[in-house]
């Protein structure tokens, strides 16, 4: 698979060099800033959960309290750990007292730096050890039960009612699904808090909550034991609560999470500064938890032409790869996205799709690429749609994709029924079984149409990445260079939740995470001793 298309290795290297510089430039911007979502995530990982008397999540209560006092730039951990040390309280108890109005965190006497450091580290270790135990449990279950062969068969449930989702998810797993994804309720990515508890009233999907994660995980484990096959659970952490939902997924043993700041910027109008900062921390959590991320490049082709804009997908994949590496997320957890979206009436459209998929497979050989089905050109003709999905499945097995989000013959008509999913699974199983090793037997003509097409896409991606390197990713997004969508660096949702870190900023979770995933400490942490000075 690595050299079936004789792509120019020098061009691939140029693309990675440009993407590395783009990501490095942004990383220096990210390092100096935090967000309200990052600070709420720190509290959750230290054990803060639940809601106040009015239903406001306690992590929001504490962070909003510190914002109002003008002291969040020190970090939520600084104040929470300090109050816990002074009064002998857990972070949960500290949050509850803040919520009741009986505790002002900023008026508490300061403990010495060494005591704060020791207690913060203890809390960070305990929170991350819980995630490590979940990762080990996943690995143990896969060892005992095994799992489906790649490409994983990935299907969605989207009833709005978590209890109905569990029933449908278990049904899909029994039919052969390897990954069950619970679609989020419409608009959840734009709310700046995480709903609490089990929910039954979602629209176009079901709210992502920690309790909903727990319920679905339990249901899929039950089927996994029956079937003797581990079933992976997927949900979405893109949006204004990206790192919080990543942490909740890690605590409830999710296996796959959609995690892509570029998707949020382009398709949800989330402020680019906010979501790129959030993404960095969320990917550290995903990486440590062993969660495969999925990125959203497939969506670019819903707003831009799949033939003309193919290079933007590849360019974005290179950028996402580098952002992931900077968060300690290894290639084998990078479900970089792309899609089968060329107009089916175009002559040689299948050839172009095959070239794109093979190119991506060769350039990212260790990544479990997430391949998305035809959606833009589905017409409601279910027979033609089923054939389009079959051709999509054939490309996938021929090119060794990792995750196959199955197309439904009723795509764009309604939320899939149970029988629609069954037909989609049967379609993929039939083609995957009958063409399992077809790709190994086929060589592509040197200098032929496929090779020329792939090299053209690569060359255009290199040119684009080098342009972005010169102007910066923020400017490129403002100019609409990705997906033909323009966004403002000071517009969109969530910018008010971004703040510069103070000189005494403290985040023991990030410090411990960076150590565990093999990332160097931030320069400012080394300069300021993790923000804690001995009084």
From TrEMBL:
One Gene Ontology term of the molecular function aspect: cobalamin binding
One Pfam family, short name: Lys-AminoMut_A
SUPFAM superfamilies reported for this sequence: Cobalamin (vitamin B12)-dependent enzymes
Organism domain of life: Bacteria
Protein name: Beta-lysine 5,6-aminomutase alpha subunit /D-lysine 5,6-aminomutase alpha subunit
Gene3D superfamilies according to UniProt: D-Lysine 5,6-aminomutase alpha subunit
Coiled-coil parts of chain: none
Domain D-Lysine 5,6-aminomutase alpha subunit span(s) in chain numbering: 5-510
InterPro entries (alphabetical): Cbl-dep_enz_cat (IPR016176), Lys-AminoMut_A (IPR015130), Lys-AminoMut_asu_sf (IPR037086)
């Amino acid at each position: 698979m690595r050299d079936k298309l004789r792509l120019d290795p020098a061009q691939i290297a140029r693309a990675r060099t440009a993407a590395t510089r783009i990501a490095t430039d942004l990383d220096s911007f990210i390092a100096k800033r935090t967000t309200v979502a990052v600070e709420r995530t720190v509290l959750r990982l230290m054990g803060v959960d639940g809601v106040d008397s009015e239903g406001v999540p306690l992590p929001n209560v504490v962070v909003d309290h510190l914002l109002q006092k003008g002291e969040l730039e020190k970090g939520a951990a600084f104040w929470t750990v300090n109050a816990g040390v002074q009064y002998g309280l857990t972070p949960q108890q500290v949050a509850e007292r803040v919520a009741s109005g009986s505790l002002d965190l900023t008026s508490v006497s300061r403990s010495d730096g060494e005591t704060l450091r020791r207690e913060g580290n203890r809390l960070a270790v305990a929170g991350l050890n819980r995630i490590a135990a979940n990762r080990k449990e996943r690995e143990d279950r896969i060892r005992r039960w095994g799992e489906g062969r790649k490409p994983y068969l990935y299907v969605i449930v989207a009833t709005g009612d978590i209890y109905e989702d569990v029933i449908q998810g278990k049904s899909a797993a029994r039919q052969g699904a390897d990954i069950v994804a619970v679609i989020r309720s419409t608009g959840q990515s734009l709310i700046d808090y995480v709903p609490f508890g089990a929910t039954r009233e979602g629209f176009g999907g079901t709210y992502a909550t920690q309790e909903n994660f727990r319920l679905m995980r339990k249901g899929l484990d039950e089927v996994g034991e029956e079937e003797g096959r581990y079933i992976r659970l997927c949900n979405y952490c893109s949006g204004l609560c990206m790192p919080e939902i990543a942490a909740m997924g890690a605590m409830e043993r999710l296996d796959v999470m959609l995690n892509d700041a570029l998707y949020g910027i382009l398709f949800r109008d989330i402020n680019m500064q906010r979501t790129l900062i959030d993404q960095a921390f969320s990917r550290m959590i995903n990486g440590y938890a062993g969660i495969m991320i999925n990125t959203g490049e497939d969506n670019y082709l819903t707003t831009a032409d799949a033939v003309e804009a193919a290079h933007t997908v590849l360019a974005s994949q290179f950028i996402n790869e580098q952002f992931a590496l900077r968060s300690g997320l290894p290639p084998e957890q990078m479900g970089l996205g792309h899609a089968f979206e060329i107009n089916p009436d175009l002559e040689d459209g299948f050839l172009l799709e095959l070239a794109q998929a093979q190119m991506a497979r060769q350039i990212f050989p260790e990544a479990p690429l997430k391949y998305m089905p035809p959606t833009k050109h589905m017409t409601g003709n279910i027979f033609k749609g089923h054939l389009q999905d079959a051709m999509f499945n054939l490309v996938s097995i021929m090119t060794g994709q990792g995750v196959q989000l199955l197309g439904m013959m009723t795509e764009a008509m309604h939320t899939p029924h149970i029988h629609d999913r069954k037909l989609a699974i049967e379609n993929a199983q039939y083609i995957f079984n009958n063409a399992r090793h077809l790709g190994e037997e086929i060589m592509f003509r040197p200098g032929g149409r496929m090779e020329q097409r792939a090299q053209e896409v690569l060359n255009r991606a290199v040119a684009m990445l080098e342009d972005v390197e010169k102007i910066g990713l923020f400017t490129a997004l403002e100019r609409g260079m990705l997906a033909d969508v323009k966004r403002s660096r000071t517009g969109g949702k969530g910018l008010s939740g971004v703040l510069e870190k103070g000189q005494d900023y403290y985040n023991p979770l990030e410090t411990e995470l960076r150590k565990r995933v093999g990332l160097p400490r931030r320069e400012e942490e080394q300069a300021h001793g993790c923000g804690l000075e001995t009084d």
